[in-house]
Model the fold of this input.
Amino acid sequence: MTILQRAATIAAMTFSLAGLLGNSAPGHATGIDKPAVNLTALANLNALSPQNVPQIAPVATTVAPVETNAENAAAVSPAVAEAEEFDTLAQAVAAQDGAAADDALQCLAGAIYFESKGEPLTGQLAVAEVIINRAKSGRFPADVCAVVKQRGQFSFVRGGQIPTINAGTAYRTAIAVAKVALADAWNSPAQKALYFNTPDRRPSVRAIKVASIGNHVFYR
Done:
């Protein structure tokens, strides 16, 4: 073998050995080396993990206040209207309408009209309170009309009936006072009173004076 042939053989062996060493690195045998990882993609993937997902705050809902108008105000229930507070008894009476809606109201208004028309409003209210207190007491009939029409109690009653009333201003006021009394919309100065009479007369029963209003004295 000539010197040139030996040189060519050595060169070929050198190239073969270099290729063998490049293809048998230790990492491939143990599985340590992994394919190259795209760091940007990994960061994006981690950002989507449950721990890193930002919590969305619940959306706060607000209810706009309801605007009232004349049409809505007319729909307010009677119970709400009765609960309204007044500065004076006159205001409470003026706030009532003049319609007598049921028998109890008509009977009470009739008693107020015949017994105390022309009296101050507090005196008319006190007369109404006497009748209502009697109906609640257990010592008299249990409803307003029966109290008013009870025999021998009110001199204006004729044959167990209330006379026909001229529906003028005085009667409309009596109806309004009756509504105030039934709704308990104003405190009477004669609370718990069960009797009333003129100053020159006393009830036939033993009674305690609780108030003197206008031309009447009230007792319990």
Remarks:
- Residues 14-37, 39-54, 56-83 have pLDDT under 50 and may be disordered.
- The radius of gyration is 50 Å.
